[in-house]
Amino acid sequence: MRLIALLLLAATPLAAFTAPAHAQSAVADPAARTFIENLANKAFATLNDPKLTREDRSARFRTMLKENVALTEIGNRLIRRQRASITDTQYKAYQAAFPQFILNAYADRLQDYKDAELKTSRIVARGPFTEVHTRVTQPGSQPIDAIWQVRKTAGGAYKLNNLIVSNINLSITQEADFANYIKTNGFDALVKFLTTSNAARSA
Predict the structure, then answer these.
(1) Cβ distance 169 to 158 under 8 Å?
(2) Are 132 and 120 in contact (CB under 8 A)?
(3) Which phi and psi angles does 174 have, rounded to 5°?
(4) What pTM does this model have?
């Protein structure tokens, strides 16, 4: 099974998923594996549809990601250490800009991975998440082990919350990147960076 969502491996430093550590739970959810496999199949079908332009594919990818990635939860966790020190106005501005920034960054990169192949091996329960263990291969490159953290929402939908690549937890790396950026430039500068990136992408 192929997977263009491997774009996560090449995303910008300010674009990654995050999830907190939890104690191991007893039962992994088999539907999480199906969720990842179906998401990969849909992405691959979009990428290889000859009737779609690059712009059409990018638009479909943004819709796909918006439906399947826990954007609000991710955004909250990336600034969990700063949340108490920012105003409600700053928080609302951040959450208004963050989702579109992520969608734009990933939708563009998805189109570069049509030759990638993903195979699932096992699932493991970890707190409220089910980790879907996979191996990603790309012609001319070494295989990469990736773990996709999936959570079932209160409404019954499944959402992607985090990605661990070659034992590197992108959530930890991303949270540190945000914290360093805010420490150096301020929280408002981070929001401006996200907003400016969104505007440039829409121009």
Answers:
(1) no
(2) yes
(3) -65, -40
(4) 0.79
Q: Worst-scoring range by mean pLDDT, 46-50, 90-94, 126-130?
A: 46-50
Q: What pLDDT sits at residue 182?
A: 97
Look up residue 53 and give its two tokens: 């332009």
CB 115 within 8 A of CB 44: no
Measure Cα distances from 132 to 33, 62, 124, 129, 147 in Å: 6, 22, 7, 9, 5
What residue ranges do the domains of the chain occupy? 4-198
Any idea what the Cα angle at residue 9 is, between residues 28 and 201, rounded to 5°?
Answer: 115
pLDDT of residue 1: 42
Q: What is the DSSP string of the chain?
A: -B-GGGGGGG--TT-----------S---HHHHHHHHHHHHHHHHHHT-TT--HHHHHHHHHHHHHHHB-HHHHHHHHTTTTGGGS-HHHHHHHHHHHHHHHHHHHHHHHTT-TT-EEEEEEEEEETTEEEEEEEEE-TTS--EEEEEEEEE-TTS-EEEEEEEETTEEHHHHHHHHHHHHHHHH-HHHHHHHHHHHHHHHH-
Please tell me the predicted confidence (pLDDT) of residue 17: 44
Contact call for residues 124 and 138 (beta carbons, < 8 A): no
CATH topology (fold) of 4-198: Nuclear Transport Factor 2; Chain: A, (3.10.450)
Q: Among residues of the chain, what percentage have pLDDT more than 90? A: 42
